[in-house]
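Final report, closing paragraph on structural work. Over the funding period we assembled a curated collection of sequence-structure pairs, and we close with a single example.
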Amino acid sequence: MSSNTTSAPKAHRGSIAVEDARILEHQAHPGGQYILRLHAPKCAARAQPGQFVHLQCDPELLMRRPFSIMRASAALGWIDIFYKVLGQGTRLLARRAAGEILSVMGSIGEPFKPRRERPRALLLGGGVGMPPMIFLAEYLRRDSDFVPLAVLGSELPFPFKPRPSRLMASGMPDGVIAAMPLLDDWGIPSRLTSQQGFAGCFDGLITDLATIWIEALSAEERAKVELFACGPPGMLKAVATVAREYRLPAQVSLEEYMACAVGGCAGCTVEVQSYQGSAMKRVCVDGPVFDAQAVFPDSDAAV
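Its predicted structure, as stored:
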């Protein structure tokens, strides 16, 4: 196994800016979840789905924290971040109020790369992995060639009020009608999953519902599908398994602890497989988006 972490300079490094961002809104939701809107025009102008920002949570905290970008408006200069309070950084961040200033560095990383030969984009977001899927959905809605469907899952109350979808999603089980209102308003069908008994949600895992939907497709339609996912490692591994079983391409966005977020410390490396063998890649600049099979290869096939 190679331990070489060096690579050619990344073109997207030139898009990283550091700016003082003013908090425009800071909404609290059940389960210690928050949506933060920042006025960060430099970052907003460059942001692409799948990228993240490295945020100063509090002046007293030296180390920044990485957060996926959920939405961005280049015209109005704002970005949205969704996060859950888990440790010291997010606890301090949750105390910040509208009007305060946070230092933000971004946008960072390799984004998702949808392909026109695979227009049926299945977007899978679990928990705090939902934001990149929402950003990707907003990006794809601007291109009529793509037909996205979002499946979002949470074991906490969703950070929005689900409602029965007004949009058809063929292949979904009867009674699975709960949707994210924002996506519904955009004309993008979505369905929600949870094992907490939430009304209208599928009772099971995201990948269970994804499999049901894929199984309902004809061979011709299945050949147009590509999976995009972000969530906990167990979920992403399951997504890779589903993609492998149905021979579908899949891109996954990894979440990893990191220090510098610009590739200098190599503290966020993961092992990635390729035709040339295995190599250690940095989640911050070589990712966070990777091919699912490269990160979660078939262990049985490797024996």
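The first strand starts at residue 17 and ends at 29. The chain has nine helices and 17 strands. We thank the funder for supporting this effort.
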